[in-house]
Amino acid sequence: AAKLRNDGAVVYDSSIDKGSEQSLSLLTELRTALERDEFRLFVQPKIHFDTGKVVGAEALVRWVHPERGNVFPDEFIPFAEQTGFIRKLTRWVLEQSAALCQSLDAAGIQLKVSVNLSTRDLMDQDLPAKFRDMLERRRLSAASFCLEITESAIMDDPVRAEQTLARLHAMGVELSIDDFGTGYSSLAYLKRLPVNELKIDKSFVLNMESDAGDVMIVRSTIQLGHNLGLRVVAEGVESEAVWHQLKSMNCDQGQGYYMSRPIPADQLLLWMQQWRAP
Ligand code: C2E
Ligand code: CA
Ligand code: CA
Ligand code: CA
């Protein structure tokens, strides 16, 4: 398994020669991976509880390493953020997501694709213009996209983040607060930012069946979101019981392993054809 050292090098055990430790520059590896087309766009469907219909999909990146197989984002996103490589990766994810929108359009399907943004993206003054260029080039509407931002990404530099978000929002793209409840959220900011969606972190959703405290947090968060005029999405729906709990609490949309694990983007249409809501 790959391990990230403090100095930013990635260290992994070779299964062939267990005694030796290889140390490579992860940044070089990431750059090479982009050149060699080793990143893959995975998506996880977002389902509307009332209608049972697929209304969106979250873009989640995977790194298909020639030797190590699927490398999960937790192993390289934090490093990509530290080094600024994330900006390149975000552009790649946006392009891939746009391509997905186009192929869904061609099939007569309109879905919102959610893309994760990092602090570095919010500090990138060029992002709104680059995003607009991409939409024009691909003849897509900004309304086809939702951008997910964590509370901590906003809190790193609230003033600058607010500027970027306002510019993106003015273009017609939707904004979502991701992992809600886990950051240093300031409710005052939630009120001020031009957000459309609040996403309840999966840590509160996973054990809702057995944890009364989680149920109370989720119920209150749904009410808070609705009182602020926001759409509320729950991630980490792993069972039919939790599906029904959330539906009865008027949660708007759900995402989770119970409906689907993240799947390669080119399999989404096929998945949608066999999806039946409980
Ligand atoms: P996230 O944005 O909170 O994404 C949700 C994570 O929860 C995904 O992990 C997803 O696979 C997982 N998940 C979804 N449903 C369930 C469920 O029912 N149960 C459980 N236990 N987990 C579930 P993933 O794909 O490993 O991504 C981890 C994190 O990496 C993401 O968390 C996000 O912060 C980051 N990430 C992934 N792709 C990108 C990307 O393209 N750009 C950026 N900036 N970050 C990304
Ligand atoms: Ca997310
Ligand atoms: Ca999340
Ligand atoms: Ca997360």
What does this 3D model show about the protein?
The protein is of the alpha/beta class. It has 12 helices and 13 strands. β4 and β5 form a beta hairpin. About 4% of the residues have low confidence. Bound molecules: ligand C2E and calcium ion (3 copies).
Radius of gyration equals: 19 Å
List ligands, each type once. Answer: ligand C2E, calcium ion
Strand arrangement within the widest β-sheet reads 4-5-7-8-9-10-11-12
What is the count of β-strands? Answer: 13
Any idea what the shape is?
A: globular
Beta-strand percentage?
25-35%
Largest sheet geometry: 8 strands, mixed, barrel
User: Low-confidence stretches at least 5 residues in length (pLDDT < 50)?
Assistant: 13-23
Structural class by secondary-structure content: alpha/beta
Count of DSSP-assigned helices? 12
Helical proportion, percent range: 40-55%
Name the average pLDDT: 90
Q: What are the secondary-structure elements, in order, as H or E?
A: EEEHEEEHHEHHEHHEHEHHEHEEH
Quick take:
With 278 residues, this protein is an alpha/beta fold.
Write the topology of this structure:
Elements: E1 2-4, E2 9-13, E3 21-25, H1 26-35, E4 39-48, E5 54-65, E6 69-71, H2 77-83, H3 86-106, E7 112-116, H4 119-122, H5 127-138, E8 145-150, H6 151-155, H7 158-171, E9 174-180, H8 187-192, E10 197-200, H9 202-205, H10 212-227, E11 231-235, H11 240-248, E12 253-255, E13 263-264, H12 268-274
Parallel strand pairs: 5-7, 7-8, 8-9, 9-10, 10-11, 11-12
Antiparallel strand pairs: 1-2, 2-3, 4-5, 4-12, 4-13, 5-6
Helix pairs in contact: 3-5, 5-7
